[in-house]
Design brief:
Number of domains: 3
Number of strands: 0
Strand content: under 5%
Distance between the termini: 53 Å
Number of helices: 8
Radius of gyration: 23 Å
Oligomer: single chain
Helix content: 55-70%
Order of helices and strands: HHHHHHHH
Largest sheet: none
């Protein structure tokens, strides 16, 4: 949207008017950036227009997390890569084959991942996934994670409890 809608003056809700102005501003900045990039750096502009560019970018980005036992987002990226391979590269056969059984397993394993991601999203700014926290939040983070550990130990039994205990030392 590069201009305000025709009925903009009739909109009474100031929040809606502000949202529309912000949307137009962002659209104009993006349009100007893309236009200038196309003129001054055609190779970069070409990269922006690659089919399924976001899928490609996210696949590369999430591949680095596999070392941290975080395979689910990477696998989630590979599914559309396999599905749309011919649109991205029709010269080479797709190296990925995702079976129906693998899809079912992926979705089953992913159910808990979303809950875990939500947990870390709630802690953003307070504590990061790798455990980092600022000096100001350190004592509070220690207390919070000690409480979470105790809750986990209280609710788990057997091998699951032993694994949790080992992982949260």
């Amino acid at each position: 949207m590069l201009g305000l809608p025709g009925n903009y003056k009739d909109i009474v809700d100031e929040d809606e008017r502000a949202r529309l102005r912000a949307q137009v501003e962002i659209s104009i900045v993006l349009w100007a950036y893309e236009t200038n990039t196309k003129r001054t750096n055609p190779v970069l502009h070409e990269i922006f227009d690659l089919p399924h560019g976001r899928t490609r970018k996210e696949t590369v980005a999430f591949s680095t997390n596999t070392w941290d036992d975080d395979i689910i987002p990477f696998r989630q990226c590979l599914i559309p890569v396999a599905r749309h391979w011919d649109e991205m590269n029709n010269k080479v056969a797709c190296p990925i084959n995702v079976t129906d059984e693998e899809l079912k397993t992926h979705y089953r394993e992913g159910e808990g991942w979303n809950e875990q991601a939500d947990f870390w999203d709630e802690l953003r700014g307070f504590a990061e996934r790798d455990g980092w926290t600022s000096n100001e939040n350190y004592e509070r983070a220690l207390e919070t994670f000690a409480e979470l550990r105790e809750l986990g130990l209280r609710d788990l039994t057997g091998d699951e409890r032993a694994h949790f205990q080992k992982q949260t030392r």
